[in-house]
Design brief:
flat; mainly beta; 2 helices; six-stranded antiparallel beta sheet
Length: 446
């Protein structure tokens, strides 16, 4: 499976003249766009899948934004202006931020407005525009919701900084750099933001290296806290405590948030007999200071000196509200399973397969598409995913709001490429051929 930050997308800002020509087009039969018109709505509420179809363009980096309806039919997404006019718009990329917002990237120009990004509310279809703010990478949003704080602000990474977007503004989404210049750049690919606005980040070179020696915290006041000095000093006189010590290497420590946006540290401990345990520390903010409280610890069974247990990416189980991640205790399959934290206790469920770093959630399943299996999020029972030799699947798109998922696929019988709808447990449901479908990019939003 691909790990987070495996791709970096660089969006090129086009000139205004090119943007007007290539970005938004008047709906056929509609009057000319009035200069007083501004972006108001994007008709996406009834869509199950959004996709970009570049078949009408010479350039392959954007295309007309389309939608697939629940009945399988396909039509353009119309952007409604404040004066009632409707447009279709070309788009570079669709990013689902959470259950409320999606973000569109492109060159959106009409009358006096010129935006690089449109934030669209899935429920109200309201549009908030945002101007360009540098080069960007969004790959981590392929598997999880964007972080947001108690005010509803959304945090998104760029190559040079972490940006905070206020999505409650009227008409526009205001953006601000959240970290000091130089703190967030090409070497940073880990960050977590709590509901309190605490940002944990690391200046590292490889994915998943969340060792405490690399991690820093930025507090809402602007204060920067170095974890190696703060966490260890508050909890231990040194790395060693009695006959136990805390590991400080890639994969042995994670910072995560629970369903309420509270921030925690998960750390691996070992004693001189190489008995391992995982501990969870809650992070609280008080008087501009961080406080670390151990809330759970549990020894990992079946460990020995030949293997160090490890936990994969920790994410919120959308069904149970717990935090879960695949883990392995030894190199034998009998001790692979699921690490789970409910806010008070740690549980290990041994499944035989770890689903290590699997991040594709549907409404009721965690999907390991590479190995064609899925884990029931209520029972942690494993089920197989049906395959169909009639199709060559090129791309998958999952949503946390349905157990159906969408694929870009080639149908061998007809030689056509289109949207294949599948069910985790029911196999192939439907196939919709798309003109020049080999070029489409899918984003399932419902």
């Amino acid at each position: 499976m691909r790990t987070k930050f495996s791709n970096i997308w660089l969006f090129l800002a086009l000139g205004l003249t090119v943007a007007v020509f290539n970005s938004c087009n008047k709906d056929e039969g509609k009057p000319q766009v009035d200069s007083s018109g501004s972006f108001s709505k994007a008709r996406i509420k009834d869509a199950k899948v959004l996709f970009i179809n570049p078949s009408t363009l010479k350039s392959s980096d954007n295309g007309l934004l389309m939608k697939q309806m629940p009945d399988g039919s396909v039509e353009p997404v119309y952007f409604v202006l404040s004066n009632g006019d409707s447009l279709t718009c070309n788009t570079n990329e669709v990013i689902s931020l959470n259950n409320e917002w999606i973000m569109l990237s492109g060159n959106y120009s009409v009358s006096h407005e010129n935006y690089k990004y449109l934030f669209v509310n899935k429920n109200t279809e309201t549009i908030l525009g945002s101007s360009d703010f540098g080069f960007h990478y969004w790959s981590y949003l392929q598997y999880k919701d964007a972080y947001s704080d108690a005010t509803g602000a959304v945090y998104l990474p760029t190559v040079d900084n972490l940006y905070k977007f206020n999505l409650n503004a009227a008409g526009n989404a205001t953006a601000e750099k959240y970290l000091p210049d130089g703190e967030f750049g090409y070497g940073v690919n880990f960050f977590v933001v709590s509901k309190e606005g605490i940002c944990a980040y690391a200046q590292i070179q490889e994915s998943h290296q969340q060792a405490y020696s690399n991690i820093r915290f930025k507090l809402p006041s602007g204060k920067i806290v170095i974890m190696a000095q703060d966490f260890i000093r508050q909890n231990y006189t040194s790395d060693y405590i009695s006959d136990s010590f805390i590991y400080d290497r890639s994969g042995d420590m994670q910072i995560f948030t629970d369903k309420n946006g509270k921030m925690y540290i998960q750390a691996l401990f070992a004693n001189t007999n190489h008995n391992f345990s995982f501990a969870i520390f809650r992070i609280d903010l008080s008087n501009n200071q961080l406080q670390y409280t151990k809330v759970a610890e549990k020894e990992v069974p079946n460990t020995n000196t030949s293997a160090i247990p490890s936990v994969g990416q920790l994410l919120v189980n959308p069904k149970k509200g717990t935090v879960m991640g695949g883990f392995f205790a030894t190199y034998g399959n009998d001790s692979n399973g699921i690490f789970e934290f409910d806010g008070n206790e740690i549980q290990y469920t041994f499944t035989g397969n770890s689903f290590f770093n699997c991040t594709n959630f549907t409404a009721n399943y965690l999907v390991d598409i590479e190995n064609k299996k899925a884990l029931n999020l209520n029972t942690y029972q494993e089920v197989g995913i049906q395959t169909d030799s009639r199709y060559d699947i090129k791309e998958y798109s999952f949503s946390r709001y349905s157990d159906n998922y969408s694929c870009k696929a080639l149908e061998y019988e007809t030689g056509k490429t289109g949207i294949l709808e599948c069910s985790v447990t029911g196999g192939i449901l439907s196939f919709t051929p798309i003109e020049n479908g080999q070029n489409i990019t899918l984003s399932r939003i419902n």
